[in-house]
Amino acid sequence: MKYVWPPLMEAIEKRQKEIADGLAKSERGQKELELAQDKATEQLRDAKTQAAEIIEQAKKRASQIVDEETQRGQSEREKIIAQGHTEIEAERNRVKEDLRKQVA
Q1: Confidence class of residue 103 from pLDDT cuts 50, 70 and 90?
Q2: What dihedral do alpha carbons 8, 9, 12, 15 form, nearest 10°?
Q3: What is the pLDDT of residues 15-66, one digit of tens each?
Q4: How many angstroms separate the CA atoms of 76 and 101, rounded?
Q5: Would the pTM count as exceeding 0.70?
């Protein structure tokens, strides 16, 4: 017994240490996994927030462009109408002058 017992105890202690080390590694791995999942969740949340901000900015810019183009179109319309009035007035004056010449 004296020769069998020490190597047997040594083997049992070695096995217990390996099991304890394995459990510790497993716990560390689990904690690292949880940290990685938390980080991934946070990054996803940040990405969604940024995407929402980008979409909102794009909508504002689109609205701004529509407003600018509407205003530009309105200005162009007014310019064309004014030019038409000027041409009509010039044609009216020319016709009056032609009539005066024909009558005189």
Answers
A1: confident
A2: -100
A3: 999 999 999 999 999 999 999 999 999 999 999 999 999 999 999 999 999 9
A4: 37
A5: no
Backbone angles phi, psi at 2, to 5 degrees: -65, -30
CA distance 97 to 103: 10
Kindly report the number of other CB atoms within 10 A of residue 43's CB atom. 10
Distance between CA 66 and CA 20 in Å, rounded?
Answer: 68
- DSSP H or E segment with residue 21: helix 5-103
- Among 6, 29, 10, 30, smallest CA distance to 18 is for 10
